Structures are given as C-alpha cells and as structure tokens.
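In the lab's daily routine, each protein ends up as an entry in a very long ledger. A line of letters takes care of the sequence, but it says nothing directly about the fold. The fold becomes a row of whole numbers, each drawn from a learned catalogue of backbone shapes. The protein below has been through that process, and both of its lines are reproduced in full:
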Amino acid sequence: MASRILLIEDDGALGAQIVSQLERVGYVVTWHRDGRELEGTEVGSIDLLVLDLMLPGEFGLDLLKRFRERTDVPVLILSARNDNATRVRGLQLGADDYLTKPFWPEELVERVRARLRRPVLQRSDVIEIGLLRVDPSSREVSVQGKSVALTATELGILVALAKRRGAAVTRQSLVDQVLDERDGAERTLDVHVSRLRKKLGEAGGYIVTVWGIGYRLEAQGP
C-alpha cells in the first residue's frame, strides 16, 4: 500500500510542485493550504506530515505542538526561515526533520523516503534495560510499565543506542543512522537526545554523554 502524506502548504505553486513530485514516485498526497485543516485530520490516516511554518492565521510551530500531542506520526518541516532558533524550536516541539526553502525536489523526495522507511528498519526484538522497555516492532516504549510516546527520530536514536548498549556510539554514527540533516547535524542530534531524556523520565539518565565521542546507553541501567 502506498504511503499517505499530508501536506500543509499555503503557496499554490510550491504546493502543486510538491504534490506532483511525491505522486510521481508513488505516494498518496492530501494537500491543504490552511493549517486549520490539520485539527480535524484523523491521524491514523496518514504516514507523514509535511508542514510549512509560515501559514496564514497561525504559526506552523503552534500547529506542530498540538499535532505532536495527538500522535507520533513523523513530521517534516518546510520553511524559508533558516535561523537556528526556529530550527531548534521545531525539533524540540517534535519535528523529525527540517528542510529549508528553496530546496531541490529530489532532496525532498529523499527526505520523505528516509522518514517513512526508518521505523520499518528497526530491529524487532524487545529490549529491556532496567526500568526501560523498548519494542521496536510495535514502536512501543515504556518506563516502569508506563507508556512513553516518542517520535520516529527519538525512537531511532534510542534503538541505535540500545543495539550497542554499554558501548559509546559516536555522534556522527547516530547522525548517519537517524538524521537527514546536513548543516548543524550534531547540534540537531543533541536537541533530539535532550528531548528523549526528558520524555524517558527516570530512565533518561540511562543515556550517558561520552565527552568527545557521543552517547552511551547503560547496559543494565544505573
């Protein structure tokens, strides 16, 4: 079954180009120009949200925040704003990737492909470390039996660390496995790790910074 993408983009010419490009490679795309359409979307009906930030009536980051409270469906931000503050804020609110306008259509397609395939590529066996339990197959994470909602990127980081628990994983390795950023990629990774630790609560301390190298997930929990 073709992956379903929801595009929120108010620019008519750009929106039409994006729809054409994504449909050409086999995706099913629904396009809305008004961000308010996102509020009534059945999140189970889409596999990826592509969200413009500069929308009429409401800032895209506010929409992202409310959307992320409902689901962990991957989110790719499109924006003409390239300042670090906006990029970091978008990642903190739950975006999985950030693509700056203008961009090559081929790059957009590859970013979309990467975001959609990542969850499928995770290992399927359950990982249990101390208070933490991770099931990559069902994409379920729990701490002390309580479910924790993670984005696809956060889950990817956690699983990448869990595959080599007890060993340091370089920041570049995590970037290559989980992120699609080219500029400021390691800073972006740090934002995702910080958000992941916070969501894991007590188990967030299992993710240890290895200075000068990257991160390590404790083998058995502290």
